[in-house]
Batch of 2 targets.
Target 1
Amino acid sequence: MTGDQGLPRLNRGTRPKPPIRIVHLGLGAFHRSHQAWYTQHAGDAAEWGIAAFTGRRPDAADVLAEQDGVFTVVERSGRGDSFEVVGSIVEAVDGSDVGRLTELVAAPTTAVITLTITESAYAADIAGSAEGSTPLARLVTALAARRDAESGPIAVVSCDNLAENGDVARQAVGALARARDGGLAAWIDANVSFVSTSVDRITPRTTQADLDVVAASCGYRDLAAVVTEPFHNWILSGDFPAGRPHWEDAGAVFVDHIEPFENRKLWLLNGSHSILAYAGLLRGHATVAEALSDDVCRGAVEAFWDEASRHLSGDELQIPKYRKALLERFGNSRIAHHLIQIAMDGTTKLRMRAVPVLAAERSAGRSGDGAARMIAAWLAYVSSTTELQDPLAADIQDAKTLDGEHRTAALVALISTELANDAATVSQIHGQLDSFAATTSHA
Ligand SMILES: NC(=O)c1ccc[n+]([C@@H]2O[C@H](COP(=O)([O-])OP(=O)(O)OC[C@H]3O[C@@H](n4cnc5c(N)ncnc54)[C@H](O)[C@@H]3O)[C@@H](O)[C@H]2O)c1
Ligand SMILES: O=P(O)(O)OC[C@@H](O)[C@@H](O)[C@H](O)[C@H](O)CO
């Protein structure tokens, strides 16, 4: 029992309600701590309201709608918490309400569509979603309405942890549009700008304990609060043909070439997160901070970083400083970032976090042992559990019916067929399976 039942519920009160000019798909914790926060901190925030749609369930929209869209961002550092009410989301909608999505995307006043639909949602859509119930299928329906309304060009901004996320979104949306109507695909090609971004702000799932802290500290009940680290970063590359908020006022950076920044973040931060997730869970840890304090996990992270750093060139990347900052961010034990959350959807994530580094090291004539160990940790982890959330969960279970190196090859194939076809790489990964837990069985 939280003891906060007598407190008033957070509501908008006299806070301004900017007009909707941004539509967001994937109303999760990260959208609230990142894009909504940046929009609130733009100098022209009064002109930019967000209508945010959930992905699979209405819950987050229901809770936020009860608060007229406002919520608390708790910035949690090693020293303490600070609280800020964010009001940039002005409408929270159940994602299944395609009518409202269509209406908003078709409006000429809407200029930007942002996405945090998870990495797997792009692949699922590429595979085809005839029933139109996935976020990108809904987006294509809404873009068709924008074309019909002659409301002009618009920007789609992927904020998911994917390499070249703008291009991935373009291809997925394009494939879906072509399957429906070639004319629509051509219109999208000519009128929709797909912006690539690198997004960063560690934001774990909110817990009841977090909500209790907000109630005790702020004197109101907020069921949509998010807890995040003070650090925030947003690098964007691409055009905004209908305008955008002045996000640079909040620290966003616009660049011509995003790839080095994307790789730095995806490999050094997300890659090491994956190592800590699988190795840490195998070794009995629950959070990032706990896993990092284990020398075996920390050693695996450092070895992977050494390899990845060789393929991240350019003074502007400031790799030593970035690595040092990551150790501090991961070590913030006041943020309970649960490894089990990071461990989800491993097949999709490792394709971007381990495979490119392993391939680059191999091409340079080195072993790529650090990257191979990330894959080995994933393999050992999926072998040790039946509770998996992964788009290829059924294939993982099938592969687990095999033994020894056959099993390893079958599991590696779910991440990269090229690696799986290379017997030396399969043996290399197989040989590392016991790196993290002697008790795990891979027979
Ligand atoms: N949380 C972070 O620290 C963080 C940081 C950087 C980037 N991101 C990116 O943001 C994404 C979302 O993170 P979050 O913390 O908000 O997660 P979340 O679980 O809180 O929210 C994700 C949203 O996407 C929807 N969704 C999830 N899977 C879906 C699917 N397969 N199809 C359709 N909709 C789906 C959910 O319903 C929800 O609306 C991540 O996958 C990642 O790509 C997160
Ligand atoms: O969000 P995911 O599931 O892609 O990855 C899990 C974490 O690595 C990720 O959320 C990081 O915390 C985040 O990318 C930091 O900005």
Target 2
Amino acid sequence: MATRRIPLVLLACGSFNPITNQHMRLFELARDHMHSTGQYQVVGGIVSPVSDGYGKQGLVLAQHRIAMAKLALQSSDWVTVDEWESQQADWTETVVTMRNHYGRILKEYERSTGENKDSSGNPSPLSSPCPQLKLLCGADFLDTFQVPDLWLDDHVEEVAGHFGLICVSRGGLHPEQAVAASDTLSRHSHNIFLVREWVRNETSATEVRRALRRGLSVKYLIPDSVIEYIHQHNLYTEDSERRNKGTVLRPLAKQATQPGKNVNVAVRKIATLLKPDKDISHDGDHIVIKTLSTFKNYNMDFHVGKEFEEDLSGVDDRKCMTTISWDGDKLVCVQKGEIEGRGWTHWVDGDELHLQLGSQLSNLLAHSLLLLLALRFSVLPLFVHSQPANPCIYLQALIILHTQTSASPAAIMPADFSGKWILESNDIFEEYLKVLDIDFATRKIAISLSQTKVISQDEDKFTVKTLSTFRNYELSFTVGVEFDEHTKGLDNRNIKCLVTWEGDKLVCTQKGEKANRGWKHWIEGDKLFLELTCEDVVCVQVFKRKA
Ligand SMILES: Nc1ncnc2c1ncn2[C@@H]1O[C@H](COP(=O)(O)OP(=O)(O)OP(=O)(O)O)[C@@H](O)[C@H]1O
Ligand SMILES: NC(=O)c1ccc[n+]([C@@H]2O[C@H](COP(=O)(O)O)[C@@H](O)[C@H]2O)c1
């Protein structure tokens, strides 16, 4: 007997700021994929734009995002826009939105099966199987599960385990790795459907907004009706992009103050009202970190490598013998005293400054990581504060910090790029070569070759050698010092270059005949990333450190 398919509803949650053609494609791709399993019959799709309380930079009002999504989806006979989430006063956890929709779906199902019950009240064999609801997302969404304090573990468990996920590939991301890296996701991998989009579409709402601000065409990226709506309401401007700038994303603020996080309610209330500044200055290994707030100020003034007596008045009023030292490019602090294993570690990872606090008291949250979200030279950090005034309580409070120092975190902890790096992936390299006017034959050779980068770094002085069996290229520069480069053997142009630190990224602007030309280098774990930009093409190369 043929098994009957499970009716399935797909739910996509996001900003949809604005909705793009690719958002709508996700539904089509997911439906095809789920039908191909032979198990499911997709019976509907829901777009659920997030509420204004989400706090994401540049988020225009929900009423506009809803209106645009409705206009866009006029062409679909099975995907609809739902306003429930967007109309909630505060931002709503995704799982709460899922429960709400699923409750509604189940009611409808019960109503329909009510008509088909046998004498003992059970659904008759004629009834269709119980419907399911799954969350539809792009590969970047899976990565967000790893961000500390963004998701509650129980919620990830419920989304992946109880409901299920359908995840469509995006850019060079590796959703299968995101699943493998998470215990929760890998436990439910049978309920996570990875959909491969072969016709790659890199449209992102952020890029669409940028183009609109610059007065560039976005035709064929978003529907004409949406373009018209945007122009009528003058939606995406420099002003609208500043909306929520400096605001901590609501999930980060909310999840970190959940009762399940062992937060002292009274202190949490005070802490969440605070807006302290963090002022970091340094002169060689002499570092001063001032944390200033209307509640409490705390200053640290130390020399790396020299033990000193730290008076934690205003924190937990203990004294410690403290030593802060470099461990690679991490700043590691050991605080010897009454509390065992006390200390912290600071490091920079991409645009983020991480602080890991450890102490016997905080074992419950032994790996509580902070994200200090950095925007170019200004950082918007989140601050987790250990306040064991009551030894049973671990306080985790989020405070918004605006760093007002010209010294970026990278100036304190510059990354070390030295080493040999082997090319692993080379995303849209051919488009990049094309935009540099490199001829067909050279392009075909170049994309087929492996590359090795050999980087020597002496503080801010760099030599980067790019080696392949076809051509070698060498570049030397000092961060902050402009230089002339002749791209010999590449596109043979003369350009004026300046490399600067942005966080721990090395960022180069290349001024010359080609617009918007430059590159960025950064390290994540044992990977070296190189983002090459020219005009509107962005190519990402990933290298692996050679042991
Ligand atoms: N090009 C794309 N490929 C695959 N998934 C995508 C793509 N664009 C958006 N998505 C997915 O659509 C959902 C809603 O996305 P969202 O509203 O955040 O748009 P976005 O383009 O990702 O926005 P932003 O550029 O601001 O990050 C998310 O699950 C996201 O991963
Ligand atoms: N804990 C949570 O439920 C949680 C955390 C972060 C984002 N989200 C959701 O993920 C989506 C992300 O959208 P953006 O990619 O536009 O930021 C939003 O719908 C947001 O509400 C949910």
